[in-house]
Amino acid sequence: MPIMRSQDWRPRGIDDLEPDAWRALSQAGSTCVIAGPGAGKTEFLAQRAVYLLETGLCPAPYRVLAISFKSDAAENLATRVRKRCPAELANRFTSLTFDAFAKGLVDRFLSAIPAHWCPTRPYDLVFPSRRQKEGFLNLSSNTAPPQWRTEIAGFHAESFEARHVGAYRLPITQQAPQSGAEFIIQRWLAGQLATQPRSALTFVIINRLAELLLRSCPHIRRALQLTYPFVFVDEFQDTTFAQYDFLLSAFSGGEIAVTAVGDDKQRIMTWAGARTDAFERFAIDFAATRIQLLFNFRSSPDLVRIQHVVARALDPHSAFTVAQAVRQVDGDVAQVWNSPTILREAEYLARWLATDMVTRGRAPRDYAILVKQKSDDVEADLAATFAQAGLRLRNESHSLGRTTLQDLLSDEFARVAIALFRLGSTQRAPDAWQICSAALSAVRAVADGDDITEARTDAELTAFLATMRGEMRNTPPSEVSVTTFVNRVLAFLDLSAVARTYLEYSSGDLLAIMVEAFQLHLAASARGAANWTICLDTFEGLEQIPLMTVHKSKGLEYDTIVFVGLDDQAWWAHTPGNAEGLATFFVALTRAKQRAIFAFCRERGQRRRVAELYQLLSDAAVPEITTD
């Protein structure tokens, strides 16, 4: 494909970029891009990738690397680049999560890790519970040298690994601990490495091993930098200590152009180890130019005005963003609802949603119910009343075995498996066919350009679906039939081949976790379903109103959000001026495109702890109505 001059290049798939996005797009060195809610950061990153590839600024065989925090975000960005760029160029764009990137390095170069830190091959992935961490800390405190016990007693289970282990650089040569922190960190790592018959590693430990690998093997670091002269990091405000340190070891030094995109006002992951100074450190360590995007393509002008009031509470110097969306509703774009009881709140909300959907011609998934925590409790409060109004609620933060519904639906195995079921229930599902055909080619290791093997693979898929379709036509959905057909899908895909194909499944039990969750959710979706189409629609959440925690809503947007539980009970840990609490409130508000409702119920609790949040809404002239 001919190279295009940079001055002649134009955005792909969209009309234009805002002026500051153009400046960030063409920046030669490292850049810190401040992108607030609705700024279109995913689109910006996709356009920058296409720009670098089409103008030859990233010529073959070099690649562009994008690092995201969640697998669905990584896949969404990759999909967008593929849609906007010729295949021969898009193939040089790599989009991974931090965890997958670090794990890939460890798996590939495991034998190069210094022997005393080297895990077994293969190893297992583990996710220790808070209780397990507390037990470890207590035991370590009791067995540590007396002079370090007071220091060790100051560690807390919720922050120990993310904050302290994540910030620790493993010494290349084995060294005796010189402090209580080193004693307990090395003990934590040694326990994971020594697990029999296979090492059992957390993603934080995998990250630390990957960082050690780059420090101890400069040729691996150099090869990495030669491969990826351009690196993107999405949702940079949530970068953990471990992730930032890994990024520093991998790509600092001035030769790599790193583009970090995010927004301090949306930092709601400090509880999970996110640094509070990530942008400041990045600007110094990477000599990065700071550029702020000022357009908001999501929310209407009146909602943007309200959002700015909250933004100023988080950052008094916050720039006013310019709304690009058009207002589509009459009346108030935001309200506080004050209800006397949980039942009255549910009845009012259900009636209002049902009426609004009909009046405005909206679908259930245009709305979202957001909560601070305990989504299962809110589901129990609302579900029956919603059902009476003809509405179905879908708790996307609900646990399914060892994962959540939302994580299942963004999983690669689940995406392929449900596409196979779609094709088993109908012959007309072109998107599902594309997903299955591409996945089967990957799983069967079909080489690019091998038309004969590709045709054979498609014929194999066609034959399997013909048999499955005939049997599904004569077998209604039930828990028993779900088990039967899931087993056939698993056998057809070959789980061993799936694990070899997709990096995230290459070790540990993540694939088993997702298979278990898939079967549980499909069996639940089959209950009461008259046919497979209804069952699969239920599985995917069609015609259902999503309910989730604010943390699960990050990166999503809805016509209307209703925040249930703006009270002291749900916000029990909030204190006035708490930055993470304000950021959580800001994230909830900014998911809305047209309307934001905040529901308070006097039966649930008071609102003294959250008085400042109500004051912000009052300052923004948001009215409060009673539903008595």
Molecular structure report:
The chain is of the alpha/beta class. It folds into four domains: 6-103 and 217-293, Rossmann fold (3-Layer(aba) Sandwich), CATH 3.40.50.300; 110-211, no CATH class; 329-392 and 545-626, Rossmann fold (3-Layer(aba) Sandwich), CATH 3.40.50; 404-540. 49% of the residues lie in helices and 13% in strands. The protein has 27 helices and 19 strands. The strands form five sheets. Strands 13-16-12-17-18-11-19 form a seven-stranded parallel sheet. A six-stranded parallel sheet has the order 3-2-6-7-1-8, sandwiched between helices. Helix 12 (241-251) links the parallel strand 6 and strand 7. Helix 5 packs across helix 10, helix 15 crosses helix 16 (375-388) and helix 21 (479-493) packs antiparallel against helix 23. The chain is globular. GO terms for molecular function: 3'-5' DNA helicase activity; ATP binding; ATP hydrolysis activity; DNA binding. Pfam families: UvrD-helicase, UvrD_C. Keywords: ATP-binding, Helicase, Hydrolase, Isomerase, Nucleotide-binding. Its EC number is 5.6.2.4. InterPro entries: DNA_helicase_UvrD-like_C (IPR014017), DNA_helicase_UvrD/REP (IPR000212), P-loop_NTPase (IPR027417), UvrD-like_ATP-bd (IPR014016).
